[in-house]
Specification:
two-stranded antiparallel ribbon; DNA integration; DNA recombination; 371 residues; elongated; Phage integrase family protein; 3-stranded antiparallel β-sheet; hpI Integrase, Chain A; Integrase_catalytic; 14 helices
Length: 371
């Protein structure tokens, strides 16, 4: 009868009084299949089925584990590219043959943590790499690829708080002026695509990479109604919206409202973009190009704040929505958030920046003086 042995399984069958116990099967089903085939072959006088080869009997290394998990479960996920990048880094740091079963325990986690710290990874990055290995191990255990406990013994590193830099109107104007003058090469008079990108981000709160670079400007919304989470909204005549495609953070397309100046950008750029192409088609804009120009701008303007990053444009937009008096559900819908917890941080910032809370308290104290 098949049973676990080391990181695989061992078959166990007795033929003519001789007990055979080959090991090295990766799954219990494979060991049982060998037992049945061995008995059948013996009955008809055929030789025993092949024993597991040395390659088959070798326990899974880290690369085996991650490659299997990626191919079988992760390849079609929206975050597949990021997963693949982290997989390659982990294999390079720990070694392709690092025993997968050792990663189930505290010692394996310490080795993973040490490798990440040697790279200078933050607590959040370590947590995500550990989560990647943990998920792969759980899948492998559930499907009988390796033997071990269902829950790897992983701790969790403290993570830094989210970035909370909000652009003031003065900083926004300086950035826009610099982007309007910046010349990436001598053949061009400026960088209009970066200025357009900057304005769209700060006006619409679109995610700076996953949404702005995947907008199809020729997709119009028909009718004047929009359904958001089961509520039918009547659109006012002056409301302009467009739909981002499904490469968003939640893998769902969503409607994004436009201010007048962002609407003008869409209308201007769509005249030069084929109907099946994205808004910035034909420009050099991608994540790395944007980051490079942002760094140059930061060096020139000397903002000197660690949280002055491209994503602060989205933070600025959502915080301004609260300052302007919009409610939590309204900002949540605008941002494309799925839970209020994601939106709450912007309400917190808006309360600090707008001074409305202190003003309301002052008014209350004044109105109730002497009572």
């Amino acid at each position: 009868m098949a049973k676990p042995r080391h990181s695989g399984f061992q078959a166990d069958v007795t033929l003519d009084g001789k007990r055979l116990r080959p090991s090295g099967f990766r799954t219990e089903a494979a060991a049982k299949a060998w037992e049945y085939q061995a008995k059948a072959n013996h009955l008809v006088g055929k030789p025993l089925p092949p024993m597991p080869s040395e390659e088959e009997s070798t326990e899974w290394g880290l690369k085996d584990l991650l490659d299997w998990a990626y191919t079988e479960h992760w390849a079609k996920m929206p975050s597949a590219d990021t997963m693949l990048k982290n997989m390659k880094i982990l294999v390079a740091d720990l070694g392709a043959n690092y025993p997968a079963v050792e990663l189930l325990g505290a010692e394996g986690y310490r080795a993973l943590e040490a490798a990440c710290l040697a790279r200078g990874n933050s607590g959040g990055t370590i947590n995500r790499k550990a989560s990647l290995v943990s998920k792969a191990l759980k899948l492998a255990i559930e499907q009988g690829k390796i033997q071990g406990e269902n829950k790897p013994q992983y701790g969790r590193k403290p993570e830094a708080e989210g970035r909370e830099y909000i652009l003031s109107p003065e900083i926004e104007a300086r950035c826009a002026e610099w982007l309007g003058r910046f010349c990436p090469d001598t053949a061009r008079a400026g960088s209009p695509e970066m200025l357009d990108w900057f304005t769209l981000c700060i006006d619409t709160g679109m995610r700076v990479y996953s949404e702005t670079l995947h907008v199809y400007p020729h997709v119009d919304v028909t009718g004047r109604q929009l359904v958001i989470r089961g509520r039918v909204l009547e659109l006012a005549p002056n409301v302009s919206i467009f739909r981002a495609d499904r490469r968003t953070k939640t893998t769902k397309g969503r409607f994004i409202s436009l201010t007048e100046r962002s609407k003008a950008i869409i209308e201007r750029r769509k005249r030069y973009v084929p109907e099946d192409k994205t808004l910035f088609h034909g420009t050099p804009l991608n994540k790395y190009y944007i980051y490079d120009i942002w760094q140059r701008m930061n060096l020139t303007l000397k903002v000197n704040h660690p949280d002055f990053v491209p994503y602060s444009l989205r933070h600025t937009c959502l915080t301004r929505l609260f300052i302007a008096g919009n409610t939590m559900p309204e900002v949540m819908d605008w941002a494309g958030h799925t839970t209020p917890k994601q939106t709450w941080r912007y309400a917190h910032l808006a309360g600090i920046l707008s001074n409305n809370v202190a003003s309301k308290l002052d008014k209350y104290l004044e109105d109730n003086k002497g009572r």
